[in-house]
Each structure stands twice: as structure tokens, then as C-alpha cells.
From TrEMBL:
Residues 264-388, 727-843 form the ABC3 transporter permease C-terminal domain. This is ABC transporter permease. Residues 490-691 form the MacB-like periplasmic core domain. It comes from Thermanaerothrix daxensis. It is found in: Cell membrane. One of its GO terms (cellular component) is plasma membrane. The chain crosses the membrane at residues 21-45, 264-286, 306-332, 365-385, 406-427, 433-452, 486-509, 724-744, 765-796, 816-837.
Amino acid sequence: MVKHPHISLCRLLIKIPQRYLVRHPWQGILVVLGIALGVGVMVAIDLANQNALHAYELSVESVVGSATHQIYISGQDLDEQIYVDLRRQGLLPTAAPILTTLVSVQEAGGTVFNLMGIDPLVDTQVRNYWGTSVPLNEFTALLTQPNTLLVPQALMDSRNFRIGDVLHLEIEGRPVEMKIVGSFPSSRPYQENILIADLATVQEVTGKIGRIERIDLILETTQATAQIAALRQILPAGMQIAPVTARQGAIENMTAAFRLNLSALSLLALIVGLFLIYNTMTFSVVQRRPLFGLLRSLGVTQKEIFAIVLSEAALMGMVGALLGLIIGVSLARYTVAVVSQTINDLYFTTTVRDVPLYPASLSKAFFVGLGATLLTAIPPALEAARTAPRNVISRAFLERKTRLSLNTITLAGVGLLGTGLLIMWVLHTWAGGFLGLSLVILGMAAISAFIFQKMVQLGETLLGHILGYVGKMAPRNLLRALSRTGVASMSLMVAVAVSIGMGIMIFSFRQTVITWLEQSLQGDIYISAPGFSANRLLTPIDPQVLPFVRNWPGVARADVLRSLMIDSAWGPIQLSATDNPDIGHERYFKATLGSYATLFSRFQEGWVFISEPLANRANLKVGDALQLQTPQGLHEFPIAAIYHDYASNSGIVMMWLPVYRKYWDDSAITAIGLRLKPGYDPQSVANDLQRSLPTQQRLTIRPNRVLRQEVLRVFDQTFAITSALRVLATLVAFIGILSALLLLQLERQREFGVLRALGFSRHELWRLMILETGLMGFSAGLLAIPSGLIIALVLIQVINVRSFGWSLRFALDPSALWIGMVISLLAAILAGIFPAFRLSHLSVAETIRYDS
């Protein structure tokens, strides 16, 4: 084919897309907004994940410094004499002891800092906070004056602190006053979040006299193996030496599932946006088929037509992606706070704030958004390029081709659906679950077009009897323009189905947690020390509290709980020891070894209960032996039961308290559960205890009802970001269907003008247009219900189990179904109102003369 001499590819690429977007600004604006929201969600989540991970890395760097290895006991402090003995034997050439604790500073607005107790004489070998030299006066004051500390210079400047000022700290619920005797440079981010004191000072204010947390070492790479072997030969049983990177990696792996799930859920919003892009690009191609046919007849090649459509998509994709970066950075202020709080509650506490943006996250989101836009635009671009000129101009050819291809599309949808289910069945991984879910969603979308056609055909029969000729015309118009209406309804169905699925998953999780709380919280009052994590009660309670509450009027029994984090082969896990004799009846068991009658006796003999997430992560079952590192060395504990637990996906081991004290030699307690005698009001007893406790430690005393409410509040907070993603995905869907139906109605302006010329009144035109869009919205909403239920089942039965290790009970939330239907109908009806209003106010001559 000879190329027309006056048509150049450059002019086509510039003029045609520009002119089309100028003449249809709302179409471009809505597409750009849809892309921007999808990219923005991805940016916000990725920044939150990166900030959380970076915050942990900085927190580790702040206390580890240049250390390569650590000597420690899992879950316990060390006797400082061990450090002294190793020093005397010359086995610690470069080493420093350390004791850390989290504190809140009243003068800093309750901000949390990491208080580090160090030996200033040797610590500079491992950590150097002073730079090249240590000011002698600060060094001397830190060693000789009680309750003194050094603060970062950034804190001194921001809060106008001076040397000699007294700070009011809260340490494990106890008020402590400490005086500033100096400052240190805070040029690096992690240095802004620590306070430094002498080791003896921190031992005193924490009540850990003669104890250290660990010994940090710097071992030369060439000699490390020999030095480690020599140390292991003389270290007491239960004491470990491990690389810093090993412990850090275990923590990062523990949060990987949480971070990956957020990323995957953010991609769902982008997937919904991609359906919007596909829908809009298909619509723009169909709308300009006569133009493309004319260009092909004039000699424009297939490649040039393809380039025109793709350049248009690229332009909208770039603008949308750039706008998405701005939206994402703004949303990140919210997502960073929510994700950080969730990680603090579930995994670990960090003290790093104001972590900067990451160019890698921004560039990744930009190119993913642009690339996804181009990929989604390829099918309609190929459709425009490959069709013969004569067929391009013929609208009837397009609709006939669409109807004939429905069976093929439906079979492809069934294939995608089956492939997705097969992948989830075969690949028992997190990635396999999400890949399978994506294929299931695509499969349901493809199948929905065929079902939509049948539903509209049924609607023609029913509405014709009820509404007469208008009731027959509306469904026929939808079927006549199936190339447009089918894609629009498919896009709306997918978006609403995703919203329904996520809503039911959250509701099912919440109902499961409520059942779990009713089963596991049987006490009347619970006492714990305040901490910086809502889900992990790890702060020891003043020992004098237990005998006091046991003798309090109305208390029938006081059960003790000791919880701590220990290392395991699967990363950090929580060890909880209790003396509750009813523990066998207060756990929601998934599997037990033997009857309930023998369960508690085994528990007292040294068998353990493990949580379902730990069993799934470690592939353990009842009867297996669980190896734990105790202060006395490695010991095996047989597993008597596996129970459902939703407090931590890292895993919990439940042990009988006397057994724990036998192996860990630890008399501390972290929580007390009180059972009251009949006739006593839990709230009144809790209030009286709060006023009368003989301790300066601030304790949290909560009746059962209040504790349940607090747990559910934390749950809602944990799922706040998931709910926000659901809302954003729904918003993208709303914009998508609104733009698609709005443009569809405006394109038919001449057709409606002809109807007016033939005698249609404005009222009848309103009825026809609202009925068409309403029928599309109703059909899409109805199709979204079974699709949403399938998505919810996959999220509950596959994704949650593989990502977090816990199983949930499916609970149907009727509100998720009717809200989805309302969204679908509302978007569709709103899309019909504007063109109906606009066309009803145009004269018949104007509508007929209009040329799109």
C-alpha cells in the first residue's frame, strides 16, 4: 500500500490523539484519574512498607553499630559477670556490653526513644556516637553522676533543651527522672531516636542490677570461624553466639507476609484501574472506527494506526502516573502511620520517625502504571490496526464480530477460572495464591459478558410487559451496542466484586476474632504493665502486685501469665507460660492429642500447646517434638494441641508455668487474670484496685468487656488500611463506570435526536436513558455478588492461611452485598442523568446536526 504523501506518522501521532482528547476532555480526565488512583495506592503502600522496613534497619543500626556478632540468651538477660570473665580470658578483643529499654519522654510529647546503657570506656570500639573525640566533661558526668544521660543534638535543638535540664521518663510503666549532661551528633537518622546512659544507670532504673542484654562483638572475617568455635566451647549452656544479620533477617522475614499482602491488595486497585483503561481505550477505538477506516483507505499503515492509539494511551498513562505519584506521596502520610502502628502491635517496636521518600518506590510505581496502561491498550490498538478498512467503517461488522466472539471469550474465561483454581491447588505458596486469584478474577470477568447478554435478553421480555415499548427498547439498545456495553458492565462487575470480596473477608475475620475472644478471655479482670505494643504483653509487673490482688476482697482466683519473645528455627516466636487450670477449656483447639480429660494432665507434665500460625509455618502437628533453646540448652517439648490464635502470625507456644520456671529460671510475670466471686462488679473492683495498688508502676487494669473492646479496636486499626484500599478500589470503579456510561450515552446524541424527531417526549427520553444505564448497573451488580463471594472464599481459605497461617470462618456480611449493588446502580444511574439532562435541553435540530 502506497503511503499518502501528505500524511506523516509524526503528524498522526501528534494531531490525532491531541484533537480527540481536546474534543473529549472528560474522557481523558477520567482515565487519567483512574490511572492516578491506582498508581497512588501502589505508591502509598510501597512507601509504607519501605519505611517500616527501613525503620527497623535503622533501629537495629542504632544499637548494634559496627558489631558483626552477638552473645545472648534467647528471651533472657545475661549476668554481667560472663562479660567480665570472657574479657579476662582474652576472648573478647573487640566487644561491648549493652542494656536497652524503650522509654517515653514527657517533655518530648510522649515520644518513644531507645535508652541505651553502655560502658563508655569500651563502647566506642563498637558504636561511636561522639564522632572523633569524647568531651571530657560529658564523659565524666555520665560515669560519676546518677540518673544522667546524653541526648541527640537534634532533640536539644527541636525542644530547646539545655544541659542540666531534667527529663521525665516512663520506663516499663514507672516514672523516672534523668538529667541531661551532654549531647551527641545526630547527623544520621537513627541517631535522633536514642538516648545514651551509663550501663550502671540503666541497670538501676530498670531494676536489672548486674544484668546485661547481650554482648556485641566485632570479629574479623578471616578469624571469625575460629573465634566463634573457641567461644562456643566455654559459653554456658543456652548461651548463643550468632551473626547480627541472622537475627535481623529473621525479623524481616517475619513481616514479609504482611508487607507482601499489602502490596498485593494495592495491586487489586490497580487491576480495577486497568479494566477502566481497557474499557476507555476500547470505547475510544470503537468511537473512531470510521476515522481509522478512512485513514486506512487513504494509505495509513496498520503500524501507524497502532502507534496512534498507543501514543494516546502513553500520553494519558504518563500524566496519570505522574499525578499518581503526587497522590501516593500524600496518601503515604496516612499509610506509613497505620502500617507502622500495625507492625508495632504485631511484630516489633521501632522508634524511627520521618523516614525519607524512596526514589526506587516512586520510579517503580511510575513505570508499572505506564507499562500497565500500554499493555492494557494493546488489544484495542491491535483491533483498530488489523481490521480491514471496509470492516472498520462498518459498525454492524463490529457488533456482529462481538456477538460471535462471545462464546470464545466465555470458553477462555472458563479456562482462566479453571487454571487459577488449579494453580492455587498445586502451588501451596503465597505467590501461587495471588496468581490464582488474579486468574480467577480475569476468568469471571470474561464469563460475565456472556451472562450479561443473557440477562439483558431476559430483561427485554420482562421489562417489555411492564414498561411497554420503552422497556423493550432499552435492553435492545444495550444488545445492539454490545461492543461497548459488554466491556463497561464487565469492568463494573470486577470492581464491585473485588469490593464485596474484601468486605466479606474483613467481616469474616472480625467475627472469627469475636468468637476467639469469647472462648479465650474467661477472666473477669486483666492486669498488665503498659508497653508499646497492643498485642504483646511483655513488660514485667511489679512482684508485690500479685499477693496484693490475690488477697483483695471479692477475688476468687488470680491466674498468672509470663510472656516473652524467644528465638527459634522459624524466627522470633512468643512463649507464654500460665498457671491457669482452665486453660484446656479456654482455647479454641484445631487439633488435640487425646481427649480433653488427658490434655491438661499432659500440659502439666511438660507438653505444650502451639498456635495454628506456628504449626503451619513450621509444618508441625500434634505429637511432634518442638525444639526450643532454653537457658539450660536445647530441649524438646512434645506438642499436645494446636489452637486457633489471631494475636500473632509469628507463632505462640503455650506452656505450664512451673515447667517454664524449671527451664528458664524466671519468676517474672507479665499479666494477671482475676476471677471474681459471685456478686462482685468487675468495673467497680477494677476501679478500686487502680486506686489502691502498692506500686509506683503504672498498670492497666481492665474488665473483660473493656479488654475485648480494646482488642477489637486494635483489630479494626490493623484492617484500617485494607478497608481504605477497598474504598479506593471502589472509587476507581465508580469513576470507570461513570465515564464509560457517560460517554456511551453522549455518543448516541444523534440517535436520541432522531427519536425526539419521531415523537419521543423529553420524559420518555429520560426514562429510556436511565433505564438503559440502570439495567447495566443492576446486571453488573447482580453478577458481582457470586463473583465477590468466590473472591472472599479465596481470600479467606487460601490467601490468609498461606500468608499468615490462620484459618477463618466464612461469615456472610449482607451489608457488603447490598452496598455493592447500590454502588453499581448509583454509578450507572448517575451516568445517565447528565446526558439525559443535557440532551433534553437541546433542540431536535441541534441533536441531529451534532457530529461526534
